[in-house]
Design a protein that fits this description.
Distance between the termini: 43 Å
Radius of gyration: 19 Å
Strand content: 15-25%
Number of helices: 8
Helix content: 25-40%
Shape: globular
Strand order of the largest sheet: 1-2-4-3
Length: about 220
């Protein structure tokens, strides 16, 4: 689930009629947790065998501080019950490790009163911040004093509005074809309409640096 899809889902959230099966998508599970936690109903999430083994504690901890309640298997694993609330408490939360999924989960949950700030030790992809701004939310980003990370603050009670968006191709998926062409002499590949967000396109930056080094010899 992209930041754009998650922001739109937040605006139209309703109590699910059934258990939400998220297959193998860890991104969907974590972002959707923030949306569901900030609404006053109970939801249940599960996934395939791989997703059920992945810990959700890294989103359960900050969302619990904000006022939601959870029931999960040992280690915070799915299936997961989320008892949400429309009175989420604003927090300031420092990510234990850099994670765009956890950051996005908190930002999507912080759509009520006050200001919620996420401090990330290393910059991560910022699709959610960009899309929340695009839909009308107030999002402030500033560098962490004396460090390489960022402070991301979202102001509650935004008036989100539907807007046109263009969804580019996934740079990670395109990476397989690009790298294959790089290591196969005589290959030529053209990748069109792929996302080039600087915080998501590190592979392409690295390949350009590699090419400059290779051809400068």
């Amino acid at each position: 689930m992209s930041g754009a899809c998650a922001a739109l889902a937040w605006a139209a959230a309703a109590e699910p009629d059934n258990v939400l099966d998220l297959g193998n998508s860890g991104t969907s599970a974590r972002l959707l947790s923030g949306i569901l936690a900030s609404h006053p109903f109970t939801s249940f999430m599960t996934g395939d065998g791989s997703l059920r083994r992945r810990p959700m504690q890294r989103v359960i901890e900050p969302l619990s501080r904000m006022g939601a309640r959870f029931e999960a298997r040992e280690g915070g694993r799915m299936p997961l019950a989320i008892m949400g609330t429309d009175e989420m408490v604003p927090i300031e939360y420092t990510l234990p490790v850099a994670s765009a999924q956890v950051k996005s989960c908190i930002l999507l949950a912080a759509q009520h009163r006050g200001e919620t700030t996420v401090i990330e030790p290393e910059a991560t992809r910022d699709h959610t911040e960009r899309m929340l701004r695009h839909f009308g939310a107030e999002v402030r980003v500033s560098p962490v004093e004396g460090g390489r990370g960022k402070r991301i603050t979202v102001v509650g009670w935004p008036e989100l509005k539907g807007r046109d968006i263009v969804v580019p191709g996934d740079p990670s998926s395109a990476a397989f074809a690009v790298v294959a062409a790089c290591i196969r002499p005589g290959s030529d590949v053209l990748v069109e309409n792929v996302g080039v967000n600087p915080l998501r396109a590190g592979l392409y930056t690295t390949l350009k640096e590699w090419a400059r080094t290779l051809f400068s010899r």
